[in-house]
Amino acid sequence: MAFGGVAVVTFAARSVIPVNATTVGFAYLLLVLILASTWGFLEASLASVAATLTFNFFFLPPVGTFTIADPQNWVALFSFLTTALIASRLSAKAKRTALDAIERHQDVERLYTFSRAILLIDSTEEPFPKQLARKLQEIFEPSAVVLYERRTGEFYRAGPSEFEGLDDQLRDAALNGTSFSDPQRNRIITAVRLGSEPIASLALQGAGMPDSVLQGISNLVAVGLERARSQDLARQVEVARQSEQLRTTLIDAMAHEFKTPLTLIKGATTSLLASPDQPAESRTEMLKMADEEAEHLRELIDNAVEMARLDISRIEVHLESSQVGEIAREVVASMQSQIEDRPIEVVCPGQLPPIGVDRRLVKLAIKQLLDNALKYSPPGTPVTVRVEESDGTIVVEITDHGNGIPVQEQRRVFERFYRSPAVQRQVPGSGLGLSIASSIVEAHHGGLTLTSRPGETTFRLTLPAEHKGERS
Question: What pTM was computed for the model?
Fold first, then answer.
């Protein structure tokens, strides 16, 4: 292209628009500057030499030879050549400087994008260092990335290429702060420091980048790892706080619940001891009441134990073939003292197929939902418990006719300890019932949803007909 440009200028100046030697010289000089700004110094230098020779041969007398008759033309010729070379050199240098500035700008943009990506990483889905390595590979596009975290001793890899055989160097860099490079394979290992202490090491392959950019990446990785560690510690503190709050709340709630049956039992035994000569019918009635309340107390203790167990992340289910409709009727029967004269309708059309569930846990979940319906609906209004089969699942729907749940609160009712501000001072409770029911249903790989409007609220509990959970 350089030689072609010289040929075009020469042909135009001799055949198309004949001009004098000075004009041709400026045309050659302009061509050299264009080549220098477009490609670089080498192309411009070749064009300068070619332009000098053609200028001598075609435009300086004697024309047609490489000799110059007038000595003044020698000065003009070499001045032209020197000017062309210097101009091309300066133009190439300016171009290289501009390219360097663009590359630095791109490096800064990538570092900024990487820093924002670190802030947006959600470590609840997968380990933070693994996502960090993947983001680094996506943004800076090396063929392979390996991040070694000193605290856990784990390697996190990303990129399409394999990067094996440097585990010892990565460990050494994380322990001692050393660096390692392999120019033949275009690999580099650098320590990741937090202050002066190395906390990890980073290996990159196939990514040529300035040391300043590599150091910037290292600093951002260090900040990201420390931020993730701080978040983990904060979550551990919050879990511990919630566990303590759960224990305190359970103790308070259970103490309140225990008082009612204990008071009745104490009243019955005190009356029998004070008047042992009472009629047999009266003594039998008191003993029956004490026995019922003792059974109620036993159920409360069982529920308290179950609720404490549900404070762990993994809930064990003991599966046995059961009729969910039968479980629902048992729940209603066990809550007669709470139901009193409330109209409760259990609808279970047809004979439902038995499914594998943990009877005690499912009973506890249905009980929590029914207790919730009784608490938050006016006395005397009916509550319906419907059990049916739908699309390979067993569905339990509990419907009450209370004021309903506002739309903005419907997503939060299953959160632990959450209670609506509108009712938390009117209706006693701990905010655990729906959370417990939701945890039990999730352990059975089912679902718990609600639909609510003023005057009607329905909780829909679904259990798979074929349970795929863990048998214990």
Answer: 0.44
